[in-house]
Amino acid sequence: MNKSKLIDVLAKRENLTIKAAEDAVNTFFKEMEKSLKRNDRIEIRGFGSFKIKQYKSYNGRNPKTGKIIEVKGKKLPFFKVGRELKERVDNI
Hints:
Blueprint: H1 3-13, H2 18-37, E1 42-44, E2 48-55, E3 58-61, E4 68-71, E5 74-81, H3 83-90
Antiparallel strand pairs: 1-2, 2-5, 3-4
């Protein structure tokens, strides 16, 4: 499912206009993004949790030239699936 399909489903299920459903979905994702930028953890019970993982810099190798390069540290979002969702998916 992609974002536009999610908007369509929400609009039909909740009897909303496409614009209202789009605003709701966009607000939800925007607030999640803001929370992650603040390094907050997001937990949706029965679904899973999101958090930011910090990765340190390291020396890597350019596969084309073989030259050693420094790969800078980075922060990336990480999703951990909840037990309930894992069980529901496994029972399909």
